[in-house]
Write a structure and sequence with these properties.
α1 runs parallel beside α4. This protein has about 375 residues and is α/β, with parallel strands linked by helices. It contains 16 helices and 12 strands.
Length: about 375
């Protein structure tokens, strides 16, 4: 049964179309001249984690099964690629070892929790003394925690894809979910992070220095394992114009001044190591906050998840002079398309072939 779906995808996937989609994204991300803005369509929303009913013949599993069985994780990762092969959108074909946000925290000995069909989380540290102990120990062994599971899954992916010529040439194995320095601190400390920013400021800065170093070195090791270029990152159907992505959920909950102090310096250090960075933003931002983010050294792209089209207009107006690509979760109204000739990658959730045809007919 497992091989049946791989054979089906191998027949449906066109490696030439995959290369064309990647080139279209590459050109748009660097503000080159493109015939149209690349758009990805699919039943799954990466940010909200909502899945609409699947309209292609492919199995769907709960995450609890995906977490336990590499074969089911692979089929789950390949589902949007099969959808893309059928509807012929502009997705770049990417799969990853999808073990959640706790991979780097697990290197430090934190317990990873996975219940039911929920995505994995981490049991946070309970005291500042535990934080001091982690800092004292320094850079951990990169073979601890979830890493064996991650690496064996990545090897499994590569071995399977190598058996099918179109899958081997048309699909990338992308970097695991490495989060970002401040997000890692938030995952490891929970809500205590916000208290410690005031009561143990210097200790948190030491922790962020350590997490930044680990983020950089561990990501480099993983990139070598999966053969991902240092300055390119394949992520959620995109070819990002930077070596890594930083998720910024926790950082956007603190004040602008604290963000400048506790996030930007560490993000810029990451950017320097990977030829730039892409920032993942899952909320509407005030214009002033977005202006500060745009000024960050080494910022190459922003993944912006919002329901407010005005926020795209606002972000694009600021980003285009610096050639910062916007990956936007939504569509552009027909009467606005001339305002966005390049510099964008679009993603949109769809629930039927009919909706796909309507969107592609307007593009």
């Amino acid at each position: 049964m497992f091989e049946k779906y791989l054979e089906r995808l191998n027949e449906a996937l066109d490696p030439l179309k995959a290369k064309e989609s990647e080139e279209l994204q590459r050109m748009s991300s660097k503000y080159g001249k493109v015939e149209r803005i690349p758009i990805m369509l699919g039943t799954f929303d990466d940010m909200s984690k909502e899945r609409l009913p699947v309209f292609v013949d492919w199995p769907v599993y709960g995450y609890g099964e995906v977490y336990k069985y590499p074969e089911k994780m692979l089929l789950d990762e390949l589902l949007p690629i099969y959808e893309s092969a059928i509807i012929k959108d502009d997705r770049v074909n990417v799969i990853r070892a999808n073990y959640g946000v706790g991979i780097i925290p697990s290197l430090f000995g934190l317990e990873v929790l996975q219940k039911g069909n929920e995505l994995p989380w981490v049991k946070p540290l309970e005291s500042i003394e535990e934080v001091k102990e982690i800092i004292k120990k320094g850079v951990p062994d990169f073979k601890k925690g979830l890493v064996d599971k991650v690496n064996s899954t990545q090897d499994f992916y590569k071995n399977i894809l190598n058996k099918y010529p179109n899958l081997k040439s048309g699909i990338h194995v992308g970097l695991l979910d490495n989060q970002g320095p401040f997000n890692l601190a938030g995952i490891m400390l929970g809500d205590n992070l916000y208290i410690y920013l005031y009561s143990y400021k210097e200790i948190i800065k030491e922790l962020l220095e350590l997490l930044t170093d680990v983020y950089i070195e561990f990501s480099k090791v993983q990139k070598k394992i999966i053969n991902e270029p240092l300055d390119i990152h394949y992520y959620f159907g995109c070819r990002l114009p930077s070596g890594v992505k930083i998720s910024e959920d926790y950082g956007l909950a603190i004040s602008p001044n604290m963000y400048k102090e506790f996030c930007i310096p560490y993000n810029e250090k990451v950017a320097k190591a990977f030829g730039g960075v892409t920032l993942l933003i899952c909320e509407d931002l005030e214009k002033s906050r977005l202006e500060e983010i745009i000024e960050m050294k080494g910022l190459k792209a922003i993944i912006y998840w919002s329901r407010n089209f005005h926020k795209l207009e606002e972000a694009y107006e600021m980003a285009k002079s610096k050639r910062i690509c916007i990956i936007w979760y939504g569509l552009i109204p027909d009467n606005k398309k001339s305002n966005f000739p390049t510099g964008l990658i679009l993603k949109h959730q769809v629930g039927s072939f009919k909706e796909v045809e309507e969107i592609q007919g307007r593009e």
